[in-house]
């Protein structure tokens, strides 16, 4: 690598660092404000809110990576343009393509870092944040992998083997105690559907009643049960697809499909990780015309335009993802479409500039 390439790469790294130092604390602060609303509920304290926010920072960085790439590269190349260094380089024979390749090389290292972070760091931290918050709010307790979802209130213990989606669960166990803590009934249901509010319909049910030394067992095709959980509480007991690592998502999607279960949300989450990488590269490409294509614009104007583009891309990506789930579109196409469209747009824009 020549001196110029090293210098350009260093400037891009500096720009990415500045963008990260601005965006990550900003979104972290917004997360903290959201968590502070729950302080005082259960055993949730201010320190828990700060801990939860800190554990989510790796995930937030991954989510912000495309916008860090966009703003960081605009900052880096914009500073060089303001200082007339880009003009000097081009006068010395350094082509815009060579300058662009320096940005893309740094972007490749960024993607590698994000991949490692998404596989080994962010999922564990995010799941710990969710679990710790739920326990402090007295909503659930995660006892370990493959053990299902456990929760309780004053007189009931509930275990859910697996949530198929927001409205159906399988492998349900309900243990009911009296006011003195003595076991009254044990209920097992093969699956359950949430009718409305806290009303569940249990299917293939076996109930065992304990009365002194006597145990009575009754079976039924379906039984309605008034749960101590509402739909919002159920969501706090499940791991969101986003909180899983790429490998976990891959095996979970394969399991869901092998057993004939609905797995679009998990498949989309898996493909969106690849889509995020494509979008990051697209943002790096789009940031280059902001500098070379607007020579009269100052760095501030470039950053404002880049920010508007970043917001537009984020909204477009969210709309496409939600529409894909609603319309049952192909998860790969839904996840990759925004990034591929941006790459095509960047290619056309770069040809016009260069």
TrEMBL record:
Subcellular location field: Cell membrane
A GO biological-process term: transmembrane transport
Entry keyword set: Cell membrane, Membrane, Transmembrane, Transmembrane helix
UniProt-listed InterPro entries: LptG, LptG/LptF_permease
Any GO CC annotation of this UniProt entry: ATP-binding cassette (ABC) transporter complex
Signal peptide interval: none
Protein name: Lipopolysaccharide export system permease protein
